[in-house]
Structures are given as C-alpha cells and as structure tokens.
Design a protein that fits this description.
Length: 348
C-alpha cells in the first residue's frame, strides 16, 4: 500500500510540475520606443516581452516557435501565425523563417480579446511599404494602417499587429492591442502578469506553456521541484459563467479555477502534462472523472472525426491531490493537425 501511495504522489508531482514528465516523453536595434512618455532603446522591449502584456490576463501562452516549426506540424502552425500576423510575401515575411517566440494572452475586456508579443526578425521597411500600397494580405483583404497612441496599427479585419522594433511586434485583435499600447503610454515597463505563470513559462524542456487564471484562491507552482500553494486574493472570475456553460458538453470545466499545461513536440507529436485546480475537493474528483470519462472522449473523438481525422486520443492519465488534478496526455500528429485547423478557423 505504501509503495502504491508513493507512486501516486510521484505521479501527481509530475503532472503539476511537468519538467520530469516531459523529459521522459518522446541583432539589436538602436531605434527608440516611447514608454510612459519616455524613449527607451529597442533592446529593452526585445528583452522584456512579458512586460508588454496588459493586466487581467485570463489565459497566458508561451511558445518556442523555432522548436515547433521544426516538427511535422510546423507548416500548420505557420498558417495559424499568418492568421494572427497577416503579412504576405510582399512584406518579406515568412513565419517559419522570421518568428522564433510568441508570448501572449486571452482577456475578457470587451468579449474575448487577444494580445501577443511575436519575436523574431521583421523587415520594417517592406511591411510599411506593403501597408502604404494596401496590398492584399493572405486572406485577400487589404492590409490597412491606422494611428493609435503614437503607433501604427496594421489590421486585416479585426486582427492585426503593431511594429515595436525590428525584432518584436505586438499582435492580436484591436481591443487587445490598444490596451497593451495604453499600458506603454501611461505605465512603466513593468510585468503585471501573475508570477506563477512566469514560473511555469520557465519550466525546463517545455516547448510551450498554457496557464489559465479563472479565479482560484490558490495555485500550485514550483521553483525547486516541490509543488506548493500560492495564496491569491481573487476568488472569482468573469469567465466562470462561460466555463459553466461549456461544462454542459465538457463536464471537467465545471468550477475550474486554474490551469497549468506544459508540452513538447517529441513523438508521437505533442505531449502535454499539467494540472487543473478546482473550487473544491469534490469538484476536483468530478473533474478527474470527466477527463477520464470514455463517453465524453468518444463524443470528442466523433467531433474531430467529422473534420476528417478518423481517430481518437490515447487514454489520459490522471491523479487527484486535494483540489488539483494532475494529468499527462500524448497527442499524435494527425490529431494535432486537425486541432490547429480548427483553431485557425476560429481566429478568422
């Protein structure tokens, strides 16, 4: 009994911290940028991308684009990046060549809003020339330039970007970008996203990170390999009604308060490890059951099959520790490609 309990605790730790699990699964610009009325060197922006994200983040993401583009799903991701950063050949922009990192977040400002900092190498002159000529972007719509807070916003429909430096651009929908520019206009370059999200983003061997803040009283974090609770003042979130509505189809979302997911791109395609935090122990038990529920997974598999995939996810591994549910989930390349196709469609 003791050895089984020890194995169980070890598995939960892997799900919460993630690094051990993942390891087992397969030119600086001299231009100046205005911040709070002052001009700072471009390298200050390039070295502090997290500081550009607005307050009130709901879901945080950190992606090693270089690692992702080297995989079989790299071309699919490139198409997704082209949706978020609507540049074409006339702008001398190729995602697989020019993008190396993306940090961003989903917000509930005026509906569902998105803001990200895309880092890499950008041909500022070519982009500005394309915008001035209003050449067609990949979507067939014109790339339009408007002025806001001393910056040029380039948009196609509601999605667009703002060139900050030749190595960093702001991207997202117009509300998300404007809020980020407002911060740069009126605040110092200070990071305002929760520290536990930053800690998660620094997980060794993780190619990408997702962290969701849905109103948990505490979340699990770790800097020394031992999970620990971090108390929080917030005990509610504007997104909880949305999650409860979605829980009718996906029960594990009911009373979900926080999410930590890390992953890499080793075989069979994408490997996920992480933990979900719930508002109570009972809800955590129900959440774990929802993740494992074969009927729910069959429905999910049927949904993706309708898009031409034809196979379901491998069994998910879960373990409960108090209000936290640790999990490990491998995803094969075919499933990942279908998922990315759906994400691209949602962003259009």
């Amino acid at each position: 009994m003791r050895s089984a309990a020890m194995r169980r605790r070890k598995f939960v730790g892997l799900g919460l911290v993630g690094a051990s699990t993942l390891s087992g699964l397969g030119c600086a610009s001299v231009s100046l940028v205005p911040i709070a009325g002052k001009r700072v060197e471009a390298k200050v922006i390039d070295e502090n991308p997290l500081s550009l994200l607005p307050r009130g983040i709901v879901i945080f993401e950190n992606l090693d684009a270089t690692a992702l583009f080297a995989t079989e799903i790299g071309a699919d991701i490139a198409r997704l990046v082209s949706t978020v950063v609507p540049l074409g050949n006339e702008s001398n922009f190729a995602p697989t060549r020019d993008v190396r990192r993306v940090v961003g977040g989903v917000y509930a400002m005026q509906g569902v809003d998105f803001c990200a900092v895309v880092q890499g190498t950008f041909d500022v002159a070519a982009i500005q020339k394309a915008a001035d000529a209003r050449l067609a972007a990949p979507s067939g719509l014109p790339l339009v330039r408007t002025r806001y807070s001393d910056y040029d916003l380039y948009t196609v429909g509601n999605m667009g970007f703002v060139l900050l430096t030749p190595q960093s651009l702001l991207s997202g929908n117009e509300i998300g970008m404007r809020r980020a520019l407002d911060r740069m206009r009126f605040s110092s370059l200070e990071r305002v996203i929760p520290e536990w999200m930053v800690t998660l983003a620094e997980t060794k061997d993780a190619s990408f990170v997702l962290a969701g803040d849905f109103g948990a009283e505490s979340v699990m974090s770790s800097q020394d390999g031992t999970p620990r609770a971090i108390p929080r003042a917030l005990a509610g979130s504007a997104v909880q009604p949305v999650l409860e509505a979605a829980a009718a189809q996906l029960p594990f979302l009911s009373d979900l308060r926080a999410m930590r997911v890390i992953g890499n791109f080793k075989p069979p395609g994408v490997n996920l490890a992480g933990a979900l935090t719930y508002g109570s122990i009972d809800k955590a038990q129900a959440g774990a059951a929802g993740l494992r529920n074969t009927a729910s997974m069959a429905q999910l598999a049927g949904f993706f099959t309708s898009f031409g995939m034809g196979q379901s996810l491998p069994p998910i591994q879960t373990a409960v520790s108090g209000t936290d549910v640790g999990f490990v989930q491998p995803i094969d390349t075919a499933f990942a490609k279908t998922l990315l196709t759906l994400m691209g469609g949602a962003l259009k």
